[in-house]
Amino acid sequence: MPKIQAGNITMNYDQQGSGEPLVLIPYLTADYACYAFQVADYSKQFTCISVDLRGTGESDKPAGVYSTEMFADDVAALMQALGIPKAHIYGLSLGAATGMWLAAKYPDRVKSLSLHSGWSKSDPYLKTVVQGWQLMAKAIDSVPEMVIQGIFPWCFTPELYAQKPDYIQALSDFVRGRPKQPVDAFIQESNAVMAHDAEAQLGKIRAPTQITFGRHDMLTARFADRLTNGIKNSELHIFEDCSHAPLYENVPAFNEKTLGFLSKHAG
Q1: Which of 35, 5, 11, 31 is nearest to 22 (CA)?
Q2: Is 73 exposed, middle or buried (CB count within 10 Å of its CB: 0-12, 13-18, 19+)?
Q3: What angle do CA 37, 39, 41 make, to 5 degrees?
Q4: How far is it, in rounded angstroms, from Cα 159 to Cα 173?
């Protein structure tokens, strides 16, 4: 995978397809490959640039305090380094939180904004859940196993576990097969999740915005009204049969709905 100097760090990224640039920002713990099921479809119409955020994958993992605003600055620096003046910006969960900051701080660089399973400001409930993940990661000294045992149950419905155990196993194997995030880097990245507060930024977002959630998402679905009311030019879609990760739980429906929005705002 190519790497490039982006601001004060080296960032790893993957590029596939052709057409207008679409920058895909991963969620907590994940590297660029987390959107593999989407890039397969999106790359037929867009140049998909999937990134490793600082602290993940093969990007630099400097010590210090991370924030969602910092992640947005990093992605903006990556775009500048790659010579991309404007792109469609897309993210799920932490990727969506980062996208909010990017669209608010760099409005001229954002053609459209896709916020999936996002939230505007971390509340006590969300912080408690993430603190539990931190405790688990430290206790078992493995971020991949913490993801599978601790984060997966928040991402998928009980029905998916019951009906498709082989699929859950395949997703688990996928997580174990990616570059292993060090526990200290996970703590820094997840601290950024707990500190996230983009409430005052929402009114600055000018790009047309798609907001989506899974109906059964206990992590972030309660923020739907706050996001749609805060972002003027936004539209909301709920995936009725999904939890926090519709991109895996119902791939065909998720890809169709999200690609439809992207296509509408291309050109």
Answers
A1: 35
A2: buried
A3: 85
A4: 20
Question: Domain extents for the chain?
Answer: 3-121+197-264
Mean pLDDT of the region 215-223: 98
Its CATH class, for the domain covering 3-121+197-264, is: alpha beta
Residue 74 in tokens: 């990093």
Instruction: Evaluate if residue 1 carries a pLDDT over 80.
Output: no
- Pairing mode, if any, of strands 209-214 and 234-239? parallel
Among 153, 202, 155, 152, which Cα is nearest to 175's? 152
| pTM (2 d.p.) | 0.98
Beta strands in 100-201 (DSSP E): 110-116
First-to-last alpha carbon distance for the chain, in angstroms, is 28
**pLDDT for 27-86, tens place per residue?**
999 999 999 999 999 999 999 999 999 999 999 999 999 999 999 999 999 999 999 999
